[in-house]
Write a structure and sequence with these properties.
The structure is a single chain. By secondary structure, this protein is α/β, with parallel strands linked by helices. The protein has a single domain, classed as Alpha-Beta Barrel (TIM Barrel), CATH 3.20.20.140. The chain has an 8-stranded parallel beta sheet with strand order 2-3-4-5-6-7-8-9. The chain starts with 15 loop residues before the first strand and ends in an 8-residue tail after the last helix. The site of zinc ion has 6 residues, from loops.
Length: 420
Amino acid sequence: MTGFAPAQPPWDGFVVIPGMPNGHSHAFQRALVGMGERVEETPNFWSWRALMYRLAAVIGPDEMELLATLAYLEMLQAGFTSVAEFLYLHHGPDGRPGVAMAEAVVRAARRVGIRLRLVPAYYERGGFEAALDPVQKMRFVHHSIDAFEDYLRALGGVPLGVAAHSIRAVCPASLERLGELAVRLGDGLFHIHVAEQRLEVEESRRFYGAGPIAMLDQLGLVTPHLQAVHGTHADRAERRLLVERGANLVLCPTTEAYLADGIFPAVEYLDRGGSWAVGTDANVARDAVSELRLLEYGQRLCSGQRSNLAGRSGIGTRLWQDAARGGARAVGFPVGVLEPGAFADLVMLEDPCLLTGGDPDLDLDAFLIGGSRETIARVYVGGRLRSGSGIPNEQVSLRADAGRLIGWLRERMFERPGSP
Ligand code: ZN
């Protein structure tokens, strides 16, 4: 007999890597997957946002809890062990203020065991010169920073960060106060969407004479506290500012592709030693390795070269390690590393890794290039098994319930004539 005849397998034990922190999520948007993909007049970010607002208008706490439970379970199964939930859908469907929506997110995270950093976002205007639209007014807006602070305090005991939605939705004076609030109530975590869409960058330049990051720097807000989400259209000087000031950038490659935002020039940023994380943002994918792969592949498509973001130990180790470290900054927990003092948030790859036939030197590169949630055998959060064989779970009924809910929401989205 000739050909394949393995001797003793060369592997010896599982490969364990730190669980990936998810630096940016809007869990409720999980219900939009696949919507808005038909031919339309202007299929851009803003038409997608109108669709998303229709969804936001019909979600109450029960719907939020189930959608977030589904999204967080899927994240866990695909390597995310903690998540920064950037929450701007604050008030109930009747517009009544309260913390019911936020508490629904907290319950969802507890139910599946993902480590949650809740990052409520302040929202005060429809745009640089735009009035609030009905959904923004009813669901997103607190009428003052003091009211927003009361809301944060009512969430006592929940690990919090503080967000300003974006520079188009929050004026400079409020941004400064939110920066202070982040230090007082948010463990120093200040999140904000920056430079995702060209239009908001152009408007920022027109209104403030500076791009969003440069404008934030004029307010003294580009600091190690800053978690700058997207940064797709940050110019070279702004990218340099982020590095020099020690800020953290949260890239969301799948969403940035899905919403046709653009491709962040990651090679230059990483070469400068910039800190970065990944986030799943709109949650069309909830998969750590696919975010990293798309980050690298975007650079390949632009440069015409392979292995743009690889380090000396290959591409998988470098990207997973960098993103896990930056992700720990975005969620504000001692995670993302395997070392004394860090939480035992762990991802265990299948053994042997069938992508390589069990070559540990190549396992992480193979995981990055060809891996998926199937390559992951087990996921632990704080040392507790949260995904993988051996845990009783409610996944089957949860998925069925969530599927029915998503169908119901999609019908309701188009029932209200007054929706945007
Ligand atoms: Zn976002």
